[in-house]
Amino acid sequence: xxxxxxxxxxxxxxxxxxxxxxxxxxxxxxxxxxxxxxxxxxxxxxxxxxxxxxxxxxxxxxxxxxxxxxxxxxxxxxxxxxxxxxxxxxxxxxxxxxxxxxxxxxxxxxxxxxxxxxxxxxxxxxxxxxxxxxxxxxxxxxxxxxxxxxxxxxxxxxxxxxxxxxxxxxxxxxxxxxxxxxxxxxxxxxx
Length: 191
Known about the structure:
Shape: extended
Mean pLDDT: 76
Radius of gyration: 25 Å
Low-confidence stretches: 27-45
Distance between the termini: 59 Å
Strand order of the largest sheet: 1-2
Number of strands: 2
Number of domains: 2
Largest sheet: 2 strands, antiparallel
Strand content: under 5%
Oligomer: single chain
Number of helices: 9
C-alpha cells in the first residue's frame, strides 16, 4: 500500500504507512539504521542475507546440533541414497544418468528412509548389489529426460562433488553427441 501511495504521489500517506510498518516490525529510527541496513547480510559474500540480524550473533550448540549465524541450509538438492553417494565419491560401480533425476532422487530417499536396513552396515559396505528404489532404465529415457539428466549429472559432479575435470569431459562428450544426433538421429547420439 505504501508503494502504491508513492506511485500515486501521496507522499504523506506513504510515509504514514511506512512508519506504521516500522513500528509493527519493531524497527524504529531510535534503534538506528535504515531498512537497507537491516536487510544487509553479516558477510558480503553471503548468498542469503539475514532479514533481521540479532544483537549478539554467537554460535551455539545444543547437544549435537549446532546453530551457526549467517549459514543457511540448501534445499535445492536432496542428494543421493548412501549407496549411490559412496559410488559417486569413489567413482566406481554403475552410475546411470537416470539417478541424477531430481524426482527419482526424492523417491529414492523416501524409499530409503522407509525401508532402512535393520543393521547400520549398508549394502555398499557389504559388497552387495543395490536393493533400493528401482533405477529407471537408461534406454527408456526420452530425449528431454536424457538431456536434463545429463545436465544434472554435470552440475552435480562438477559442483557438489568437485569433479570439475569430469564435468568438463561430460560437457565435451555432450557436444559430440549433439553433432551425431544432428547427422544420424537421437538413438545414435545415445550410443
